UniProtKB/TrEMBL annotation:
It comes from Olea europaea subsp. europaea. The lineage of its organism: Eukaryota, Viridiplantae, Streptophyta, Embryophyta, Tracheophyta. SUPFAM superfamilies: FAD/NAD(P)-binding domain (SSF51905). This is HOTHEAD-like isoform X2. PROSITE patterns: GMC_OXRED_2 (PS00624). Pfam families: GMC_oxred_N. InterPro entries: FAD/NAD-bd_sf (IPR036188), GMC_Oxidoreductase-Related (IPR051871), GMC_OxRdtase_N (IPR000172). It comes from the Eukaryota. Its cofactor is FAD. GO terms for molecular function: flavin adenine dinucleotide binding; oxidoreductase activity, acting on CH-OH group of donors. Keywords: FAD, Flavoprotein, Signal.
Amino acid sequence: MALVGGAAEILMKFKILLSLILWINTFALSQAYEHPGQYRYPFIRPASSFTEPPSAAESRGASKTYDYIIIGGGTAGCPLAATLSQNFSVLLLERGGTPFANGNVSFLQNFHISLADTSQTSASQVFISTDGVINSRARILGGGTCINAGFYTRASASYIKRVGWDAKLVNESYPWVEKQIVHRPELVPWQRAFRDSLIEVGISPFNGFTYDHLYGTKIGGTIFDRFGRRHTAAELLASANPDNLHVLVHATVQKIVFDKTSKRPRAVGVIFKDENGKQNKAFLSKRPRSEIIVSSGALGSPQLLLLSGIGPKADLEKLNISVVLDNEFVGKGMADNPLNTIYIPTNRNIKQSLIQVVGITKLGVYIEASSGFGQSMDSIHWNNGIVSAEVSTMFLCVCLVYSNE
Ligand SMILES: Cc1cc2nc3c(=O)[nH]c(=O)nc-3n(C[C@H](O)[C@H](O)[C@H](O)COP(=O)(O)OP(=O)(O)OC[C@H]3O[C@@H](n4cnc5c(N)ncnc54)[C@H](O)[C@@H]3O)c2cc1C
């Protein structure tokens, strides 16, 4: 009997110990934010991990403030955050999650699946323009580079001049990006045929493989490597100074906060919602040149300015948004990029490719092609506008002709 009693006691102690271990493990897991890139990017955390400074006034003098707050961790926001973090403290806020374990993002063969995924957790958010054009915008760290066709080219010298950028700085930035995420494509048969066709119809000269923007036909860069794996702007964060950078994902900025005590309102902080719906506030440091940088995309940036009270006064008042700055241009003048698509259906199994070859004409018209993204009868049926799955039930070769002017 004593033996049985002892065994029961040991068993009970073992059960308590096991429960304790399990509880400690669960607790530890709930504290850590796990994503496949966590060791390379230890500064990426969920928005809910943010601890708010006690109050706006105190925070302006408190330690947890930032020299730069960047809103939108997309194609522009990620390299900007990595660069600024070399010398300044930076908070990067991105409304989507991380791309590192997302198969729809990582693999070329899922390009169209990602665009067709209309779920709340999708990396791509579908929208329809006022002209009725179906399109997508990114909702993930890495932004458009996580859902786009991955074609990479340098800007033309005339463009850099027209928009007033510092040409020297731009030219120094190209290799920084190219070394990290751009690749030379291996041409698939359809892209080779497309290249030869462009040359045959007189889109010349043939400039071979080059990142430069040159008239004629060329093979450009791609963010897909030879295994069809996508490299996104989120990977540029690997160049950041980890001691200076804080990246919060699932952090949707709702409003920029202004200090209106002086004549000219000054942006001092942001209000953002975390993944649990809780509102948080983050503030800039007192450093005179500290800034809030809006890089939330062509739609997201004007949307956020309007929500923050910057825009046409009449429009803001109609929505009961108190006006910080009356600016008639915010949210105006948007236009769809004219695009004509020629589909060539075939019942042969065509190797998949996204943009590798491009024809650049002096009329400001670009000609590109992709292949193999058709759908079978039982797969997804969703018109995503750009490379619509509904257009054909066969394997496709697509020729896209669009204008830049
Ligand atoms: C289907 C498709 C194919 C394309 N193909 C190519 C191509 O082959 N080559 C090419 O050069 N370009 C291509 N583009 C265009 C290119 O992807 C975009 O021009 C580029 O990504 C824009 O960069 P961005 O930084 O301005 O915006 P984005 O990269 O869209 O970044 C904006 C980020 O801000 C976040 N955000 C928005 N609002 C908020 C908020 N309130 N709070 C927090 N975060 C917010 C978004 O989630 C997003 O991550 C393509 C675009 C699409 C849609």
